[in-house]
Amino acid sequence: MSTDLTTGIATATVSAGLPKGAYDLIMSLPNSSDPSTSLDGYIFVGGPNVAAFSGQFSFLFQGITTAAIPPGAPVQADIAGSFVADGNGNLTGVADINSPFGVLEKTGITGTYSFDDNGRGTLSLTTQLGTQNFFFSVPADQVGVTVYAGTLTTEPGGALIGTGSVSKGEQQPAFPNTPYLATFAGETACDSACQSGGGRPLPITGSALVNLNFGTTFTATVDQTLGTRSQTGITESGTLSALDSNGRAVLTTTASSSGAVRRMAVYLIAKGFQAASGLDGFYLISLDPHDQNAVISGNGNL
Questions:
Q1: ∠ CA(140), CA(246), CA(255), 5° rounding?
Q2: How far is residue 297's CA from residue 283's CA, in Å, rounded to a whole number?
Q3: What is the CB neighbour count within 10 angstroms for residue 247?
Q4: Which of the pair, 109 or 254, is modelled with greater confidence?
Q5: Which residues fall within 8 angstroms of residue 122, CB to CB, at 6 or more apart?
Q6: Which CATH number covers residue 138?
Q7: Are residues 164 and 130 in the same domain?
Q8: Alpha carbon distance 285, 298 (integer Å)
Q9: Residue 173 lies in a domain
Q10: For residue 30, is pLDDT > 70?
Q11: Are residues 99 and 71 both part of a single domain?
Q12: In terms of Cα–Cα distance, which of 123, 122, 99 is closest to 109?
């Protein structure tokens, strides 16, 4: 190992003995202002870029379909899921997909990923519906060390157009029974009768204060806007399953105002660099068929 004390930059070369990957090396350097003391620092000995992206991750994609559909028909297409990246450019997992063409729950996914020294690359996801390719970006300062989060943007020519995010996944909440602040977006349903009458789906946006008691119950207070109409203080409650090995749970909610019952999937995540400190959040996606129900998706954090 060599060290330039004027710049504070140190380099190290490992010729053999360590598996492929990224490592933290703690060292002590002489303190030039006081030779009797030393300075502690870190050297990141980076392995191949893809090795920094390994372990369990969850993701959320929000977009629209590019398929030909009747005028006025819904176009929202969302995906939420969880996968394990192997550190060699491959991933496997599960996903929930909600689009105008139906719902797939916990369907299997495979894929590949890569990125360069600047954190820019590609990621592909393959399901029984086909393969969707994304531009994939991660923070440059996480490349070669440990990647906690990334962003997704659809490549041209695919079945979907939209953006998404990827975050480290978790299987247990760090702070159980703590309220989350969530935001969501989507669109209302518009079936054939709605379309033939000249109707069309309305955009939905909203926020909620959410309590997730995994394995027991769920409660929320929701403010939302449908088109130009706002609704505030909507209370919802229901049941929430335990988290599975994918960090996924299913909640069933009932709106007090209408009695409408909805099902949603929740994926627990660690929010970016907060993964190291244990603060968590979640992605969510509705599981009700879009031809008769609103489709929404979003995220929450402490």
A1: 105
A2: 8
A3: 24
A4: 109
A5: 113, 114, 115, 133, 134, 135, 136, 155
A6: 2.40.128
A7: yes
A8: 7
A9: no
A10: no
A11: yes
A12: 123
33-36 contacts, C-beta under 8 A, 24 or more apart: none
Question: Torsion angle of alpha carbons 144, 148, 153, 154, nearest 10°?
Answer: 80
> Above 50 in pLDDT, residue 164?
yes
- Percentage of residues in the chain with pLDDT exceeding 70? 78
> Is 190 part of any domain?
yes
Q: Let me know whether 122 and 64 are in one domain.
A: yes
Report the number of distinct structural domains present in the chain: 3
Same domain (yes/no): 228, 192: yes
Is the domain of 189 the same as that of 143? Answer: no
For residues 97 and 103, the answer to whether their CB atoms sit within 8 Å is yes
Mark which of 168, 202, 221 sits at the end of a domain. Answer: 168
Distance CA 239, CA 222 (A): 17
Q: Does residue 143 sit in the same domain as residue 208? A: no
Q: Minimum mean pLDDT among 9-23, 149-163, 218-232, 259-273: which range?
A: 9-23
**Is the pLDDT confidence value at 98 over 70?**
yes
pLDDT at 274 over 50: no
Q: What's 169's DSSP letter? A: B
Q: Are 11 and 2 contacting, i.e. CB atoms less than 8 angstroms apart?
A: yes
What is the spatial distance between Cα 59 and Cα 168, in angstroms, rounded to a whole number?
9
Residue written as token pair 């309220």: 179
Q: For residue 175, is it within any domain?
A: no
Where in the sequence is the domain holding 141, given as residue range(s)? 56-168
